Prior knowledge:
Elements: H1 5-14, H2 28-38, E1 50-58, E2 61-69, E3 76-82, H3 96-106, E4 109-113, H4 125-139, E5 146-156, H5 158-172, E6 180-184, H6 196-200, H7 209-218, E7 245-252, H8 256-268, E8 273-282, H9 296-309
Helix pairs in contact: 3-9, 4-5
Amino acid sequence: MPLHPEAQLIIDRSGAEEQPAQPVELDAQAMREQFRTTWTMPEDLPAVAAVADTTVPGPAGDIPVRIYTPEGEGPFPALVWLHGGGWTIGCLDENEYSCRAVCAQARAVVVSVDYRLAPEHRYPAAADDCHAVLTWLHDNAAAVGADPRRLAVGGESAGGNLAAVTSLRARDHGGPPIALQVLVSPVVGHPDDGRASYRDYADGYFLSKGSMDWFFDQYPRDAADLDDPHLLPLRATDLSGLPPALVLEAEYDVLRDEGEDYAHALLQAGVPTRLVRFDGLIHGFFGLLATELTDAARAHTLVADALRRTSGDPA
């Protein structure tokens, strides 16, 4: 399908089509500053009952989180949400709109996690923080109006990676139980794995292969980490026993094929999985670009519907 006109406008504004393919040469701090200057908090945010910034205990100190509470009486289903940014940039504000939208539509508690960033904190720091917040939410569900039997984990891009990894960790290390994993454009493979989407959309579509190469220079400690399924879930030899999955992909995204391959691998392992491709869209459609792409609302509704359907019998 042709590129969606709204996505084309974003690409035209960013100048991505005119930029020649080249490696990223900025350091992490410069990348974060660049992100902050090119993104602003949306106006007209979806209304929820309450938003609270707090911290929860983590393996290396307190972890900042933002808790969104819906209108009505709980206990509600709950979603641990993990932002994107290649494990290196990004923040809680990045997903303010989408977290509120899902909270309001699903009537679910959403806990957005400000996990530690690389390269100051390399693998497995971010994954450790995400699992710690999931465990905290399970153990303290009543305090935030959540149902510990209806606990989900989700994220976009590197956040999708961390959601998949957290699901694997929970299975491999005795919990906590997860009812649903939401994987939006997840990083589950490597840029050099040879998938067609990395070739077809390497440059000019908002997220480039060069950027992904740079992110992979920041997060792993060494090459051996790239064989660890708790860093790259497509390296796992056994995906059975994982929670049901909702996988959302954009057509014009270097990460498209690996996410779809992971969805098919989950299905082959007997994991109930729904895969939805958003034709004509680009990376970041769910959170970062949510107010600029009208199809983001459909994606939010899919996630909200999946959360509403979670039962009290997590995998």
